[in-house]
Amino acid sequence: AQSVAQPEDQVNVAEGNPLTVKCTYSVSGNPYLFWYVQYPNRGLQFLLKYITGDNLVKGSYGFEAEFNKSQTSFHLKKPSALVSDSALYFCAVRETGGSYIPTFGRGTSLIVHP
Amino acid sequence: DTAVSQTPKYLVTQMGNDKSIKCEQNLGHDTMYWYKQDSKKFLKIMFSYNNKELIINETVPNRFSPKSPDKAHLNLHINSLELGDSAVYFCASTQDSSGNTIYFGEGSWLTVV
Fold it and tell me: pLDDT digits over B84-93, tens only?
C-alpha cells in the first residue's frame, strides 16, 4: 500500500525567506514522488518528480525537492519565496511496479507575506 | 492551446438532475482520468481509461458513468445528482498508463442545490 502525509495544513513565510513544505511517504518498494501546485480556481500543475538518480531534484519556478530514503521524506524547498508562490501544494507518491495511480497528500497551503 | 480542456467550468444544478462534464486532451496521450476534489481540497481518483478502455473504477457510485468515445475524450455523466456530489471535478491525462506526469484540466465546479 502507498500513502503520503503532508503534516502542515498551512505554511506561512515572508517574501524573500526560504520556504519548506514537508512531505513524508510510505510504500512497499521504491517510490516515485511528485509535487504539484494548485493556484486558486485552477487545475493542478506539475512541479517536479523523483524517479531515480540524484536525490536533489530541481523543478519549475525555482523549486527543488530532496529525496531522503532513510527519513522517507520528499520536502519541497525554495531559497527565496515570492508572493506569487502562494498556492496549494500537493505531494504524491506511487510505488514502482504497483498501481500506476499516485496517491495525493491532503495539500499544504503556502502563504507568502509581502 | 489548452492541453486538457473540460467544460463547463461552472455548473449549478438541482438535486435529482442529470448532468455531463466533457473533457478533451490534445496531447496525444493514451490514458485519461477523472478526479474529484472535495471542499477540503482532498483529491481522489474516480476513474482511469487507457485507450478508451476502463482500467480503474475507484468505488464510485453507479450514478457516475464515464464515457470515452476515443482516446482524446473522456466525458463524465452523473445521474440523479445529490448534494454530496458538489465538488470540483478534474479531468487529467498521462502519456500512457504508466505515465509519471499528470496533466490536469482547469476543473469543473459542480454545485448541487
Answer: 999 999 999 9
For B105, the 3-state DSSP assignment is coil
Instruction: Choose the closest CB to A101 out of B56, B103, B106.
Output: B56
DSSP characters over A26-82 = E-SS-EEEEEEEE-TTS-EEEEEEE-SS-SEEE-GGG-EEEEETTTTEEEEEESS--
* A94: nearest CA partner in chain B: B100
In chain A, residues with a C-beta closer than 8 Å to the C-beta of B94 are 100
Q: Give Cα B52 distance to the centre of its chain.
A: 14
pLDDT in tens, A20-44: 999 999 998 889 999 999 999 899 9
Residue type, B1: D
How close does chain B come to A70, measured CA to CA in Å?
A: 23
| CB of A88 closer than 8 Å to CB of A107 | yes
* Closest by Cβ to B90, choosing from A41, A43, A107: A43
